[in-house]
Amino acid sequence: MGRTPDQLGQARPYSLDELLGDDLELDELVTRALGHDGAGATFEVVGYSFGSPATGGLYRLRGPQDPGWSIFCKVLQHPKHWPVLHLLPPSSQEQFLAEFPWRIELDLWEPAVLASLPAGVRAPELHRVIDLGDDRLAVWMEDVEESATPWDLDRYRRAAELLGRWNARSRTAELLGPFPPGYALRMYAQDAVVTRGLGPLGDDELWSHAWLAGHADLRARLVALGQQIPELLDRLDALPQAMPHGDASPQNLLVPASDPGTFVVIDVGMRTPHALGFDLGQLLVGLVHAGTVPASDLPAIADAILPAYVAGLAAEGDPTTPEQVREGFAISAMLRSGFDSFLYDLLSDPTPDNEHCFAERVALCRFLAEQLAATEELAASRGEVEQPRD
After folding, report:
1. Which SUPFAM superfamilies does the record associate with it (predicted)?
2. Which of 101, 113, 217, 248 is most buried, with most CB under 10 Å away?
3. Where are the domains of the chain?
């Protein structure tokens, strides 16, 4: 059976002394960040869904209630430290270790990237980067207190519009960088999609399970789409490109309680050039992945974010057409989040809660496949591409 990203392993724990390094004292860090000492601070380990090879741990320093304060720390690591590196095909490991951009999140604070952020989007304040040795970094940054107001369609629209503006402003040679178009998604498709997505589709015993037996049509569609992955990647690379956020889920677009009209962007990833519309994929599926939004909301969210993103592009003078954005959105979302949506590990623990979670992921995959099919039908009706065959 496949394994889900949050079940892949646990990161190495760090002590506060390790995360401060040899030359930084607690009071110095807090004073520089917040203007007062760190008296009464407590050190917390922050839980997270493990899966990113570059994430080595999340931590928080929290001050006493009066005055209340906190500082956040994320450990970035070379993928050689990833506990489940062995799950990649041996043929892929060498290239992955050599080329995976594990420091990419630091790009967010590069002057050119900060200058590309539109009004309404900002980075968290960066306090300090500590070299922990052996290709590990402790990144101390602002701890954003988030608004308790849930995401609604208006917030989705606002986020999509600003992502469109940001992507339009991220199309210069300086920001696109040295990688070829679609490089990160191509790596993902060749490794994760093949092992976690396509592999289980060939398991007849797995697909005879009661939770999957009624979805033979979806299985057949995914098998057919799997054969088209090289063509789909090539089509994405031919579309207008931008340097995306790369993981623009609502969880990474923080809405501060003190300034709910602003998004604080964190955890950028997959930052190689990608087709315009790429960032809409994670915006669409992020809260469904988290289990806080039902898959039945996906059509309404998709209908809201696509035109808002196009409007954001247009507001920055970008001429990319809605049809091009729709194609980039539908193909990249399917490749990034469709094939490996299934939580196969839950099949061995058939509780009602697990059945519901599993069904939600099946519904997510089905929606992404149907969205791609609808996009292809529209393009075929205009004579732009040959309609794919199942």
Report:
1. Protein kinase-like (PK-like)
2. 248
3. 1-118+125-143, 144-390
Q: What is the pTM (predicted TM-score) of this model? A: 0.91
Q: For residue 125, how many C-alpha atoms fall within 13 Å in the half-sphere facing its CB?
A: 12
With beta carbons less than 8 A apart as the criterion, state whether 341 and 361 touch: yes
**φ, ψ for residue 30, nearest 5 deg:** -70, -40
Q: If you average pLDDT over residues 273-291, what whole number do you get?
A: 97
Burial 114-153 (b: 16+ CB within 10 A, else e): eebbbeebbbbeebbebebeeebbbbbbbbbeeeeeebee
In CATH, which superfamily holds the domain spanning 144-390?
Answer: Aminoglycoside phosphotransferase (APH), C-terminal lobe (3.90.1200.10)
Beta bridge partners of 263: 121
Residue 341 corresponds to which tokens in the numbers above?
A: 């949506």
What percent of the chain is modeled with pLDDT above 70?
A: 94
CA–CA dist 276, 144 (Å, integer): 28
Q: How far is CA 192 from the centre of its chain?
A: 14
